[in-house]
Amino acid sequence: MRTDELFKHTSKLQDFSSALMALAEHVPERMTLAQTTFFLLAGIADISGRPTTFTAIKEASGDTINRSLHSTYKVLLEGPNRKDRPNPRQKGLNWLKRESNPQDEREKFLRLTPEGRAVLVEVIKALANDHHPEN
Fold first, then answer.
1. Backbone angles phi, psi at 83, to 5 degrees
2. Does the predicted TM-score (pTM) go above 0.70?
């Protein structure tokens, strides 16, 4: 792609940067890119009316989302991270909740909580921000 062709896409990159900045205002310092991507994928599925599962996201993303995500994605969930020994200092962000599939109780859909929806709305607003002089 030539440089002048790349210039046509700088507004998209600017929008993407704005969305990342909106998300960064809410993301804890130690949250990984894999955890952030996982949240966005789960949130997009939920607001699209097609809630997804942890397994479906892992299968769709392949090696893009790392193996340790199985234990670390729980930082996105509501309440304490450990069922067996709740630790009040180890609270989740309360952005996602697990909800049983009515057709198969073993399957757990990931759904946005009101807090998670608010974060996702801010990211979407940042993407939709009409700040381009050519528009």
1. -70, -45
2. yes
Which of 128, 113, 125, 102 lies closest to 43, judged by CA? 113
Confidence class of residue 134 from pLDDT cuts 50, 70 and 90?
very low
Task: List Cβ neighbours of 86 (8 Å cut-off, separation of 6 or more).
Answer: 79, 80
Task: Give the span between the Cα atoms of 75 and 90, in whole angstroms.
Answer: 8
Sorted by where each begins, the domain ranges of the chain are 3-128
DSSP E strands: which ranges in the chain?
96-101, 104-112
Q: In this structure, are residues 78 and 39 in contact, taking their beta carbons and an 8 Å threshold?
A: no
CATH number for 3-128 (one of 3.30.200, 1.10.10, 1.10.150, 3.40.630): it is 1.10.10
- Residues 100/108, Cβ–Cβ less than 8 Å: yes
